[in-house]
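2024-03-11 09:14:02 DEBUG pipeline.ingest accepted 1 chain
2024-03-11 09:14:02 DEBUG pipeline.ingest length=433
2024-03-11 09:14:03 DEBUG pipeline.predict start
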Amino acid sequence: MVRTTDNNKGIKISNEIVSDFRGISNKKINSLISENNSNLLIFPDDLNQTEDKIGNEIIFSIQNNILTTGNIMGFIGCNGSEITIQSRFDKCDKNYFLHYMLQKVFSINMFNLKHGINNEAIFDFLIYLFPYYLKKALRQGLYKEYHKQEYNDSNVKGSIDFNKHIRSNLPFVGNIAYRVREHSYENKISHLIRHTIEYIKKHKFAQGILKLDLETQNCINEIIQVTPRYDYRDRLSIINKNLKPFSHPFFFEYKELKKICMQILRYEGLKYGNEKDKIYGLLFDGAWLWEEYLNTILKHQAFKHPQNKCNADPIYLFKDSGYKQYPDFWKENIVLDAKYKNLSKKIERDDMHQIITYMHVKVASYGAFLFPSEKTVDKHIGRLNGFGGDLYTLSIGIPRNSSNFYEFTSIMALNENKFKEIVNRISNTGCST
């Protein structure tokens, strides 16, 4: 097991680790996904969802037994080797900051679960992500697909099965054997979800995750109702039926749900190396996760969070509504730019030019960079020439020496409140202190 942080300066690793991960080191994420590494999950699930385009990034590079990481965090394994990448802003070896952001972004309440996280691998978050993607999928409706069904009654509506009819209906009593092709909710996808539900029910730590909220419970009940022929002995058969890639023009939210179900049900086999040279893992883009975490705070303060994927809340550079841009957060008189990097000493030129452009177009009086650091602080960078406008850096403090996860979250809550107060003061008065 290798434990490191994102954006490390390089650490020495063994020859065995080098050998196991030679196939993915120095490769772009787009390339890894296109090579059908179906056991490798990377979030965001749409690699082009963010401005940073993480598909063009690498997970890590290896050169002369030196492993160097980028912005990607999480867990990845191959054969007997495993690498855990935690946030560089989390000085605690328990990986609290990554767990905390995941909990906030995916609406997971760990305090309702009957365990701590100290001994839980990042990969176990697959189980915690299951309700989030289950709800997203079922908001599109129950998955259905065409199945050939056989009937023997008087309501003929398909092709007659003469052989079965002769075997079953002589002497004739009014029934006719026939086949019909019709939509069915009981299918391989529904049964895959059902098997995952039953697996989680028996998990020694995570049973409570299926009862976290009413929507989750309703979704589970729907799946149970449409899978009356569920049999735990069919699990391997159901997994094999779902090995082919999933594609559907309408039920597209089921794609990631299916991946997660397959990972949960197959993880033990992957973990103990039953599939040689198969890469498996759960990875998160740090910049995306930081931005989505900030959204859980700023959305309650009426900030818009533009989404390129769904064309939501863009700004336009020209008066004829041409050339859309997507700032991280904006409202009325202020623009905020999320940066998953330390800005306490230096701000890159391109980052500075970008936020000034957004402020100019929105005629915003205030702009700020948002980043994680050791403590919650704010700094006035200066007032812009031309149309004016004040620019700031704001950070949320990340606890460094918490003795447990509960203490960590308590301190984070205090730091978030202080952060919100600073944002309010800037946007309302232009004064950060």
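2024-03-11 09:14:41 DEBUG pipeline.report The mean pLDDT is 83.
2024-03-11 09:14:41 DEBUG pipeline.predict end
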